[in-house]
Amino acid sequence: PPAHLALHWFERCTETDPEAWLAQHGGEAQPAGIGTPESDTAQADYLQAVRDIQAAIARGDTYQINYTTRLHLTAYGNPVKLYRRLRQPVPYAALSCLPDHQGQSRWTLCFSPELFLKIGSDGLITTEPMKGTAPILNDGQDEQRARDLQADPKNRAENIMIVDLLRNDLGKIAQTGRVRVPEPFKVSRFGSVWQMTTAIEAQAKPNTRAADIIRAAFPCGSITGAPKRMSMQIIRDIETAPRGLYTGSIGFLTPCDSGLGFSGTLNVVIRTLQLAPLSDGLYRGVYGVGSGIVADSVPEDEYTECGWKARFLTDLAPEFGIFETMRVQQKQCPLLPLHIGRLKQSAAALNLPFPDSIEQQIHSYLAQLPDHGLYRVKAALNPSDGLSLSHAPLNELPPGQTVCLSETSLPPQDYLRRFKTTCRSIYDHGWQQAERQGAFDSLFFNSDGLLLEGGRSNVFIRLGNEWHTPALDLDILNGVMRQAVFADPQTHLGTDTVHQSRITREILMQADEIRLSNALRGVFQVQIAKA
């Protein structure tokens, strides 16, 4: 194959219960989710591209173009569990993990509702292009939207163009007069959208080979436009990147004793998330989304339609919440901008909605606290409940604090350690166990023997005249107080520079001084507790 392609040969296929398989391989408790997707095409650029396509239509270059863009995101956790979380009742879904041309395993999470080719044992070939979309909003108007979609002249015209194209494609390998359209303009529910489809059937000529069928019909006209070849050239010129597997096909062929000697099913690869590994449990994701552009398309409406089609992905909230704990004295929280900034950044990184009103809600809550006294204020943001705020009196920490060394070894990489999430039972157990032993916290190391952080603190050590702290690329929380130290190390550590370093257990034990940082307690000196 060409250098950028990988050829896979499957020895055999064994049927299995998909529900049982998915539960076995993706049923773990560890979270799986995505960061907030970002489009490779700004809205203004998208609208201009649609206008450029309409100019090509006006020149007579094409009748319709399926214009697509890409969403880029970070995904974390087990891809099988992520597939289960995103899974929808669609007929042509697929999950695969295969090496690419460089030998790297890449995951494909395909949730396609669209049939490209169904080849029957009797030689009957069916294709069911999908053109026409309306959202499902569960607001009591969804059935009316389905009826409106079925009757809409624009969507019908768009559908007819592609049906004519596919009839012509199948006509190349069909018996004379054996191409028909049994059910035009069928509207069905697929996840969060209504889709209009039209089935086309063709009886293949005797001795037609699988390669003949694919050569005649691929790629599916619903994801190119009409006429096909010119539309594909326009797509190459106007889209920002090659589509790769997106809008291609996943399927299978199996031998049989009748008809053409084989049967099979192939989908159109849409509604598909592709994952490439970045590190252990962390992936770079790409999701393609598009719509059919015709002469009377409204660019803004097409942009909105792409949002509908991606909603099942973009609305995937994390399985946990995030929170901040703030030191408030006499209604003042000096670190408040850092707390709000981290809350907002974490929400974006974890695809958690962050309404504009949150910052004002926090300010209003602090303003209602008593005029005097020291308080611990918790701001928690959860997918189901939104923002919740609570407070409790806080006593000053007495001097002479100690810290334990945890025996629990953590993975070298863990994306979620970068955020203050509610999914932190190991850390909570660590500091709570330390508290029972009269210490403030437990320090954790990874399996490479490198110091990470405490269950509720960051750590700084002095070696001679130099201060060091674990580096952020070890996947540790960039604590609010840690940020304050880096902003003004002279005030907090009496130095101008803090080095982000690899600190082993041996180096820690040789430290001339150890300090912890915590947003409630500031920066304070500790000793290692005796075992």
Average of the residue pLDDT scores = 94
CATH topology of the largest domain: Anthranilate synthase
Please identify, by name, the CATH architecture of the largest domain: 4-Layer Sandwich
Give Rg in angstroms.
Answer: 29 Å
Q: Mind describing the biggest β-sheet? A: 8 strands, antiparallel
Overall description:
- It is built from 14 helices and 26 strands.
- The protein is an alpha+beta fold.
- It has 3 domains: about 300 residues, 4-Layer Sandwich (Anthranilate synthase); about 70 residues, Aminotransferase class 4, branched-chain amino acid transferase, N-terminal domain (D-amino Acid Aminotransferase, Chain A, domain 1, 2-Layer Sandwich), CATH 3.30.470; about 130 residues, D-amino Acid Aminotransferase, subunit A, domain 2 (D-amino Acid Aminotransferase, Chain A, domain 2), CATH 3.20.10.10.
- Strand 14 and strand 15 form a beta hairpin.
- The longest helix has 19 residues.
- The chain starts with 17 loop residues before the first helix and ends with a strand.
